[in-house]
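User: Can you help me understand a structure? I only have the sequence.
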Amino acid sequence: MSPEAIAAAGVPAAGPDDVVEAPNHFVVDLPAYAGPLDLLLSLIRDEKVDIYDIPIAHIAKQFLLRIRVLQLNDAAEYLELAARLLRIKAQLLLPRHGEAETWEDPRAELVRRLLEYQQMREVVDILERRGDERRSRFARAYLPETGETVAAPLSLSLGELLTAVDRILRVTREPTVHTVVARTLDVAGALATVRTLIATRRAARWSDLVARDAEPWQILSMLLALLELAKLGELRLAQPRAFASVEIQNDSPGEAA
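Assistant: Let's start by predicting it. Here is the structure, written out as tokens:
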């Protein structure tokens, strides 16, 4: 707002320090305002004026002084409201031509906006009080764990239980049954076979004793027989390298042919 407009409103041209020192100036102690309407509504309340009959000249003067005190000269929204107040004051000063002329109070629009803003502020205040009451009622605190968590009891009807069992049986595979036939090892027969072989030969191989199509029990019987004869010192077993055929040597003199 230009200095000329401020002078037209009847506001004295004073510096920032002079505004506070003036004895007749209305001083607002609120730390901050939510906007120009908030500031204007606070002025109206503190001045105890009727919101439906606002003394525009006085309120506009106090509003401009508050803008200077709060250093809101660069706030466009505050300046816009200040200009609106000055325009309303100018409209009130215009002469009216007789009683028959239709005249509308230029303050009506401002009063309507103030009433709407006042209603919203009251709602906000109610919500803030409710929030404070709720915070005071439910204080923040650490709740230690109570220990074991008790699981809720399982509640199933008979139909649900049978359906679950049927579903499990449908996806379960039939168990594989293996028939195990017990077969006795013939270690005595294997001992006789080995002794017969090494009686005629000084050296032999594993392949000379066990056929390729031998049954597992035959292989195991022959292995136990060889280990038993090696333990008794009747022969010596050797394997030149890994996975090579086991060599059987008869070191007993006079037995091999």
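Now, to help you interpret it: The longest strand covers residues 203-205. The first helix runs from residue 3 to 8. Let me know which part you'd like to focus on.
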